[in-house]
Design goal:
elongated; two-stranded antiparallel sheet; binds iron/sulfur cluster; alpha+beta
Length: 143
């Protein structure tokens, strides 16, 4: 394999320096059918105690099950139940899925993924350069 071939096989985030700056527009907290905010039981319990609610009430009011059985946040209309005036009500405790956005494997691995996601997220391609090490740390679950 030539050096050029090897370079082309690298994931997109290694071939190009990604730029990103969150404007706080809230678009990533919205979506139509098929948009889910997944979270672990531990994350759910953490949010529940952050809000000072009983587990019973919290589960009833804020949680739902994905058809595959995973735990997800409820949606109200097309928005996450915690989106209020374009702000996240549980920002310090938001799930990893939210904290790691937009550095998701399906978004940063290919140029197409990055460009497609830029249609939703106005912060993609703007602002500071994000070092590869930071992208890889997020991909490894350190969002
Ligand atoms: S869509 Fe992008 S710019 Fe808007 S709040 Fe989400 S991450 Fe930030
Ligand atoms: S938990 Fe917060 S950051 Fe995540 S989708 Fe809901 S409102 Fe957005």
């Amino acid at each position: 394999m030539s050096k050029d071939d090897a370079a082309r096989k690298q994931p997109f985030y290694r071939r190009r320096t990604l730029r990103f700056h969150c404007t706080g527009c809230g678009a990533c907290c919205r979506g139509g059918d098929g948009h889910y905010v997944f979270l672990s039981r531990h994350e759910a319990e953490d949010i529940c105690s952050y809000l000072g609610l009983s587990w019973q009430w919290f589960r009833h009011r804020y949680l739902a099950r994905h058809p595959d059985g995973g735990l997800v946040l409820r949606m109200e209309g097309d928005a996450c139940v915690f989106l209020e005036d374009a702000r996240c009500r549980i920002y310090p405790k938001r799930p990893l899925q939210c904290r790691s956005y937009p550095f998701w494997p399906e978004v940063v691995t290919t140029e197409k993924g990055w460009r497609m996601e830029a249609r939703r997220c106005e912060g993609i391609g703007t602002g500071a350069r994000i070092p590869v090490a930071v992208v890889e740390e997020i991909l490894a679950g350190g969002g």
